[in-house]
Amino acid sequence: MIEPAGVIDVAERAGVSVGTVSNVLNHPERVAPATRDRVLRAIAELGFVRNEAARQLRAGRSRTVGLVVLDVGNPFFTDLAGGVEKTAGDHGLSVVLCNSGDDAEREEHHLSLLQEQRAFGILITPVATKTPAIDVIRGRGTPVVLVDHSSSARQCSVSVNDQIGGELAMAHLIDKGHQRIAFVGGPLSIKQVSERLTGARKALRAAGMRPGALTVVETRALNVAAGRQTGDAIADLPAKTRPTAVFCANDLLALGVLQTMTRRRVPVPGELAIVGYDDIDFASAAAVPLTSVRQPSAQLGQAAMELLIDEARASHSHQHRQVVFEPELIVRESTTPD
Amino acid sequence: MIEPAGVIDVAERAGVSVGTVSNVLNHPERVAPATRDRVLRAIAELGFVRNEAARQLRAGRSRTVGLVVLDVGNPFFTDLAGGVEKTAGDHGLSVVLCNSGDDAEREEHHLSLLQEQRAFGILITPVATKTPAIDVIRGRGTPVVLVDHSSSARQCSVSVNDQIGGELAMAHLIDKGHQRIAFVGGPLSIKQVSERLTGARKALRAAGMRPGALTVVETRALNVAAGRQTGDAIADLPAKTRPTAVFCANDLLALGVLQTMTRRRVPVPGELAIVGYDDIDFASAAAVPLTSVRQPSAQLGQAAMELLIDEARASHSHQHRQVVFEPELIVRESTTPD
DNA sequence: GGCGGCTAATGAAACCTTTCAATTTCTGCG
DNA sequence: CGCAGAAATTGAAAGGTTTCATTAGCCGCC
Question: Which residues contact A140 (CB under 8 A, 6 or more apart)?
């Protein structure tokens, strides 16, 4: 293990000053080609690697953006992360992916780490609707963009209209003639979930059906395991009162429900139609391909990153914007009997 | 946007020296309780946030470990990342997740960023078997642990025995009476893929079958799309020469193949049995629940992180170790006709 | 030959924290 | 009351880069 070389060593070897070395690294056009080559050679010979900590200390701000999501296990978020990372890369920024796991404490922990790192900016799908820590961070001058979460005009956000998504899903089920429908999702404190539910209720009213036609089953989490559990609860109901369709707040839940139905030989969609949400890759590969509400996840990530960059670069003239995408219903076998 | 406060401001406000402030932050036991409280109050009042860059500059090394994986879209890797992150968190380290996407160039890019950040250590599933950059990094004193990749004694690694996994899968198919089997996976340059193939061939020999019984279909990638494509190619073959079983190098491929078969009404496992690899959550939720080779992904991550910490803390007395886990075959409907 | 105007290169200061040897303050005891 | 020893606090140095006001070097033109 050799002592790592610094700019000073490079400068010495190349016979120039440290300032010149720095210029070769950051403003190559300012230094004469001959000198530049000499410096570059010295860098290669010494195996010099720039110390990002020192650069950052001087710059006062890092080149890293934090992306805090609710669940890395959910392909929706990894797709979104893909969009973020691509756009970030195009602007010379790197991304650190943080998983809050829908836990406010972990979210807070990640946020403080990001602040200590003087993150360039933060993209976050917050656990709670009201997160004072976020305002504090923005108050300190770090741009923050809310992702998959609509918001007031006081901050930038990127989202998909969850009410419309809920309406699309519900209207589709009503259209197929279902009279007893269950909404499966939770915790309801998650905004996306409650909005989708609101949309579903709206569709119910629009169709002139009584509110009792929709039963809400609140789950503890939005993953496959919770779906399986809920599936069992539903399958246990007597066929007469059992819902004939479920609208799940995301695809993981839907896949869990579907899995239980398959195991317990409840025909889908014959006895139970299922609609999911997100249209992840696995939705179409499921036991019965899932009808699902598609969200433009990668575009969402891209738009969020672009907003963040705008807020960072034009900090004074920046106008907060709320970008809202439209979801799209993808109909598959889980709601359409052959 | 207020000027952010530094240790100096805090010291001034609390009426102590900067050294004491630093001690409150890093060695609270060294400072008298009364003083400590005064400093903590000043910190709260000023909204002081430690500057990680400066701390790092002084320390010479960061508290971040890099985890470079082949595909964040693959749940196997996100599960693995979960294990890594948990273990890292327990030791006060944070993790940055980097996606190489099986592209050597992106891998290299991530590695240089990690070096510039003076990463505490690096966990990597390398794209190529031979990656000189890794040796250079280790030579500079940064611990590196290979993940899901066995290796020579000259470095730490954590892996699951892929040959045995291949053998298990293949032996199972042979046991079910299949005589024409396809191996689907690629690029074969990925070690995990070629090892699984080697294991499959071994099982073939052990069963006394001719090598021609196994056809190798090399894919461009290990994702659902590649699986769908291969599925079409297989389904296009005349029933007489078509394999009666496929062993896919991972579950994403298997799900893709399965999806095509379902769409094209080729009965699974009736006309085509399918075995996957990794046993991701979605494998059991598939159209036909997938038989798959389970890997202890989270444990893998945990073990890798522990090895890394050992290498970092006991750098001189450290003995490189190769931890190898055993995979396990999970049999489901995709290979067992009712 | 001298001088203006230009490009290229210089080097010290600043960024903020941690460390550690040195100093001050406290405690208990003779 | 003084002193030894322990405990608490101090303050300057170090860590590696970037910035920017200066200085040096060069060219062409009067």
Answer: A115, B1, B2, B4, B47, B49
